[in-house]
Structure formats: structure tokens, C-alpha cells
Structure of dUTPase:
Amino acid sequence: MQQKILTMLDLQAAMNARVNPQWRAANLPWYRAIWTECAEMLDHYGWKWWKHQKPDMEQVHLELVDIWHFALSDLLMRGDSPEQIAAQTQVALAEPTECDDFRESIEQMAQRSIASRSADIRLFAAMMQLAELDFDKLFKTYVGKNVLNFFRQDHGYKEGSYIKVWQGREDNEHLAELLATIDADSPSFSEDLYQRLADVYPG
């Protein structure tokens, strides 16, 4: 687990640098992105008592992964080495905050992120547990989205020349298919995934 956390930290730092080379000095409000994603996740899970709603757990999991992007960024800003961060994060993920209601855990994450202006990893672990998102799926989905974001940038996404739909399906659907065929435990997981995307991309 610690090696996978290190991998995600490296990928997040690289993506942040791609968006803004001076991201470490920019004092970006990662906590604000976290509580905003919490609100979006609550909508996907459902909270309106005056109408029938069925939780969309696939979207809930994707929102958790989005929150994880910002949580990793926040952790990287705390001054510790990546190795220290990975070790501390592994411990926190193994000790989830006690909570038995998913909606309340979402609200607690939003409240704490605003109050502390940082990410609460133990509470994030509780949200994962309540949403039945295990660490391996978090890792695989996180790396997949990160690699796809890089792939898009490398193939003209910013310029508008990137082809998002091919063979009648969006790129994220191709991504999900490829993720099922690649060993997430391989040290070269992200590189292998990028190459597989390049192999099937029509551009």
C-alpha cells in the first residue's frame, strides 16, 4: 500500500506541475475543492426526502477519487517528504473515523475541510468504507484518471484537437476497459496504461 501511495503522490505532483509549474508557491485552496466535491457527491448519493432517489455509486466512487486528487495535493504541501507522507497516510487509512451514516460522513468532511483548511484522511477512509470503495479500486481508478488527463494534454486537449470519442465510445469508457486488463501491482502500471491508450487511440 505504501508504494502505491507514493506512486499516487508522484503522479499528483506531476499533474499539478503540468497545470501550474509554480503550484507549490501558488497557495492554492485545495480544501475548497474538497468541500465542493463533497456537495457534488451528496447529490449523486441522494439526500432529497421529497422524491425517490437511488444512489449512483459509480459516480459516488468517482467523486471520492476526485476528492483524493485534492487530498494528495494538500498532503504534498505539508512539508514532509513523500516517504513520510506515504507512511502517515497508510496509518490514517487503516484507522477510519467512526461513522455509520454516509451522508453524515460527507457533511463532516466538508465541515472539517473548511474549518481546518486541509484534508482529513481518517475521515476520507471512513467515507471509502461506507461507500464500499476499497484501496485497490481507489488506486486503480485514481491512476487511470491521472494517466488519461496526461494523455489528453499530450494529444491536443488544450488546443482542441484531441479526439474524445472513437469507435462510438468516449475515452473514459476505453480507459475502464483497459484498466481491467492491466496489473495494478506492477511498478510500471501508469506507463503501461499510457502505452495501451496510445495503442488504441486513433489520432
In short: The mean pLDDT is 92. The radius of gyration is 17 Å. The chain has two domains: 2-133, 138-200. The longest helix spans residues 57-76.
